[in-house]
């Protein structure tokens, strides 16, 4: 059932799109996609049909060779424009010819020098949350699902990959014509396309990895456990419904850690560090195959249903595969980021709630890890109230009941009341979902990895720095947590010593570096500037950029330097990342 969605012009009583046949011509010279989309809807439409559109140029709308009347309403800064198809005479399909805008905010066009190979450009999409409408006019609401086919024409030797089953690649002169089919219905935010000079390796019977040739071997090693994760996930969540689970390693400017595009998860290369310490990211995106892609948040107000459930399942699966010390450490780090985000918004801000009215608010603007870790803690609290065995039966029932449907927070609460009345009695559900902040009785994390860090942090406060021997067996997460738990600023000499102890000088571990560079900036170590600059050029992942840019903006010596750096590398970044950087600077009054 389509529901009222504050982030879409879709009118719930109008027809719904059920299938689209796409033709895309990817033109790197003009940074545009010339497209044609044939839409099929679920009933005969008389009168009007509204679609979402952001800056897509409409060339023609027609059916059976006859032009249809249409109008684009005025531009809204968040929603874009309503595309109004008019005076329809009982049609159930229509065709739109269109051209994307070079500034489409779902697309990043990379120059050859921004890729590893350096010889060919690269294009990728990122549609979540409300950016699909900048690639093609659509009903851009997560409560509406459609199947699709696509034919994508790209310059050779590049190929296109999509969140769909690849069918054929036909070479025609200088072009590759790539065909796809997506038989499972998806919401528009899970539409995904990438074009590049890609290689691939098989990881298992259902898993393949795509990346540029320069990094494919390392990537295949880092993510070799993917098929195992899939098998483990199926034990908890039921059969995998999407046939294949492939991975695509993105260029470093990819704005997120991962994106759960169905059949083809997009992954940041910043987690390829050579020791598999960040493969929880794959567990996370894989879990979305059930919680998110099968059961989809009805609107972006219900985002916690996607991310809270997925973070909970990520923890459960990693607990089996890597042990609870590992999974609990990830939760601890995430919770730290969550509390930092809550403090940023203000502990009494509505953005700290799992569910609130978001009309007039751009979901990308308020994106944070709050729904992830507050949602995970809420679900763990429910689990604790009824015991794991009972909760696991609830999980199966949940997936079975709502798969291929969308679900609202209200819908979830009534299902919970019906299925787990004992939990509803024991847990203050209203507080968890509708109140600000983080409940004091949240389940505590528990991990030997955390304890070891806390002992060293305590020693530091007594003036004792750890030795290389002390931290020899530490993993990357422990180093991250240690750096985070030090005072906000420390003596520069200590920074330099820590750099040696943790071997951070030539390091390519962007996650640890994000923490370390921010600490060095706050500590007044201005020698770090060239490395900060290099980092800001190289990394596009928002979660990794924020701590450094914020530290620069909040520290006296670096405050005036950060805007010129951001300006210098604006061009290297994804439109979403540029917006986030702008926001950090303007929030800091720069
Ligand atoms: N679906 C999200 C990424 C996303 C959220 C994109 C909102 C656009 C809008 C993805 O599943 C995700 O959560 N990625 C995290 C992974 C991490 C928590 C393991 C990320 O990008 O860091
Ligand atoms: Zn997620």
Distinct small-molecule ligands in the complex: ligand BES, zinc ion
Structural class, judged by helices and strands? alpha+beta
Strand content: 15-25%
Mean residue pLDDT: 97
Structural shape: globular
> What's the N-to-C terminus distance?
45 Å
**Helical fraction:** 25-40%
Low-confidence stretches: none
Largest sheet: 9 strands, mixed
What's the number of helices?
A: 18
Rg over alpha carbons: 24 Å
Strand segment count: 20
How would you characterize this protein structure?
- The chain is an alpha+beta fold.
- The chain is 37% helix and 24% strand.
- It is built from 18 helices and 20 strands.
- It has helices at residues 213-222, 226-237, 280-287, 303-322, 324-345, 370-386, 388-402, 409-419, 421-426, 429-434, 448-461, 476-485, 492-501, 510-522, 529-538, 542-554, 559-569, 575-587, and strands at 17-27, 32-53, 57-63, 66-67, 69-72, 81-99, 107-110, 122-125, 145-155, 159-162, 165-172, 175-187, 193-196, 198-202, 208-212, 246-249, 258-259, 264-267, 295-297, 405-407.
- Strands 1, 2, 3, 4, 5, 6, 9, 11 and 12 form a nine-stranded mixed beta sheet that branches.
- Helix 11 runs parallel beside helix 12 (476-485), helix 14 runs antiparallel to helix 15 (529-538) and helix 16 (542-554) runs parallel beside helix 18 (575-587).
- The protein is globular, with a radius of gyration of 24 Å.
- The two termini are 45 Å apart.
- 48% of the residues are buried.
- The mean pLDDT is 97.
- Bound molecules: ligand BES and zinc ion.
- Zinc ion binds next to helix 4.
